[in-house]
Amino acid sequence: MSRPNVDIKHHVPLPPYNNEEPTTTSSKQMASRLKMQVRASERQTITAEALRPSTFAPFGSVIENPCPSIHPSSTAAASLPSNASPANDGTAIQYRNVSPMTNLHQGSAAKPRMSIFACATHDADAGPLAIPALERHPFTTQTFIPISSPASAYLVVVCPCRAPEDDDVRLPRWRGMPDLRGLRAFVASASQAVTYEAGTWHAPMMALGSEGQRLDFVVVQFASGVADEDCQLVRLVPCEDQPRVVVGQGARL
Asked: Could you say which residues of the chain have pLDDT below 50?
């Protein structure tokens, strides 16, 4: 995988953040989330890998049944891990604390938000998939939980932060633009949910499947209603060097 340099340009002026906590913003600032632009200067192709908790850990957590071979029963307790216990008179198993829910807003600035994203599919057989944008949520985790839909797999693209620079010093919390050298891509099944840790750069969700299909997600996060705090968006300039993801047969589910 190549190690590209990037050129960074801001699409809009940054609000005057002077610290890492939420600030009062005008209604105009609330109406449009922070938008920036990144241009890759070297071609980069990322090969997707199957989603596993250990490899995804730097970016968040994977939610899946940790013991799918154990069937709920009144005698299952002896085989369960320490965070699990029988429930509902032995007809279910409860696994506790499977993923964090982090709210870094001060006081009551944010409320829990649950929504549904209906995502159109991308055909991985048609060639490498371009990454159009990256976004992050500085003050909250964000969990995507797939629910019954025609499509059965999705692509998770994540990216670490670069060191803070002078031109982004006024960003709220988790300063630093995406470091495209560290882009990673994972293929998840519909039996896996993912939680992005607060401040993790990630691509908009890409469902995988045939044309005309979709994959629905329940999305859980905290939100303050202040757009610049709830989401920061970086557009990747369309060009021949725009990062792309190849979904190999080995990663398909």
From this structure: 1-32
- Is 136 a domain residue? yes
3-state per-residue secondary structure call for the chain:
CCCCCEEEEECCCCCCCCCCCCCCCCHHHHHCCEEEEEEECCCCEEECEECCHHHHCCCEEEECCCCCCCCCCCCHHHHCCCCEEEECCCCEEEECCCCCCCECCCCCCCEEEEEEEEEEEECHHHCCEECCEEEECCCECEEEEEECCCCCEEEEEEECECCCCHHHCCCCCCCCCECHHHCEEEEEECCCEEEECCCCEECCCEEECCCCCEEEEEEEEEECCCHHHHCEEEEECCCCCCCEEECCHHHCC
Instruction: Give this prediction's pTM.
Output: 0.82
Residue 211 domain-assigned (yes or no): yes
Domain that holds residue 240: 6-18+25-66+101-251
Q: What tokens were used for 65?
A: 């049944």
pLDDT the model gives residue 5: 42
User: What is the domain count for the chain?
Assistant: 1
212-251 pLDDT, tens digit per residue, is: 999 999 999 999 998 888 999 998 877 777 899 999 765 6
The reply to whether 207 falls in a domain is yes
Residue 72 belongs to a domain:
no
CATH number at residue 165: 2.60.120.480
pLDDT digits (tens, 9 = 90+) for 159-182: 998 887 765 555 656 668 899 989
Paired tokens of 133: 């944008």
Whether the CB-CB separation of 135 and 232 falls below 8 Å is answered with yes
Tokens of residue 188, six digits: 């998840």
